[in-house]
Amino acid sequence: MDSVVTLTGAFKNAGDYLIGHRARALLAAHVNAQVIDVNRKEITDAHYEVFNSARAVLLTGGPAYQDKIYPNVYNLDLSRITVPVIPFGLGWKGKLGQQPADFAFAPAAKEFVQAIHEDQNRFSSARDHLTVQMLAANGVSNVSMTGCPAWYDETKLALDYEFDSNVKRLVLSMPAVPQAQVAPIMAKLAKDFPKAQKFLSFQAGYKSTHSKKSAEYTRWNRAMMVRGFLHGFKPISFEADFNGFESFMNTIDFHVGYRVHSHIFCLSQRKTSLLIGEDSRGIGQVAAMGGVALSAQQPVQEVLSGIDALFATRGAQIHTAVKTMRSTHATMLEFLAQI
């Protein structure tokens, strides 16, 4: 059997594991090839033989479109690869408020991105419209918005979303960096859902790995855990624990918070969820699903009102998201068909 290679980067964040898990499931269902997964940080000379014996190398998941996607995210020597190298569900990581047209890759990274899009008879897979717009501004047009692979649990694709106001278990997914909104959100959730079991989830663990402020951010996480205890929240970590993440999230009735893939997982399972975007990833994902995201830059009262609006409309935005995910699934299948 032919093979395809997925280059993935799941290290701490359970959401990254979800991307790879769902991507491989899509490939298994729709591409007649063995899937070989390679950690993008562990590429050796020997891997180039694996790459060239495959049908294609798929750059899979995550906010890979950063200013130095090459060499910081994918340190690939394209001159040594003789098969197509194709982005699969890649997204743009921009700052909140940054316009896609204003983003520029570093020179070597731009050459890399344009090189992997040289074949105009093939299109790559982008996870949201902002990513498509950013690539267009950087000279790349053969790309389609397929959504993130994590959108698609194909066993649930035909399932409708049903709003349920009786919340028994809720989770607040904690941000990657400190956000002043968190404490008031905890207070509101504790007041609005006094009988519900409440959790604070740390999708990448309690300890921050921020390049310059890890100690400061870890202290903030600990402070929020203490505050959470006072409001009845139990902290839980999913660092490098996809199975734990999946099992836990399946028991949740309502998710609110900052982690994009906690939100995506809930929508894929038709659960109530509200995302607050920390950067272009969150804003882009909600927009791609047909909604308007709350932002970490908004006044806290607007975020609290957004929670009220979700329940007042009986999850109207989630109904829209489910319809969008179903319709976009056809584009994902078109992408998979060309591999």
Q: What CATH first level of the largest domain would be assigned?
A: Alpha Beta
Strand line-up across the major sheet: 2-1-3-4-5-6
Q: What is the correct CATH architecture of the largest domain?
A: 3-Layer(aba) Sandwich
Class by SSE composition: alpha/beta
| N→C terminal distance | 14 Å
Query: How much of the polypeptide forms β-strand, as a percent range?
Result: 15-25%
Low-confidence stretches: none
How many independent structural domains? 2
Q: Mind explaining what this structure looks like?
A:
The chain is 41% helix and 17% strand. The mean pLDDT is 96. It is built from 12 helices and 12 strands. It folds into 2 domains: 3-152 and 328-337, Rossmann fold; 169-324, Glycogen Phosphorylase B (Rossmann fold, 3-Layer(aba) Sandwich). Strand 3 (57-60), helix 3 and strand 4 form a beta-alpha-beta unit. A 6-stranded parallel sheet has the order 2-1-3-4-5-6, with helices on both faces. A 6-stranded parallel sheet has the order 9-8-7-10-11-12, with helices on both faces. The chain is α/β, with parallel strands linked by helices. The chain is globular.
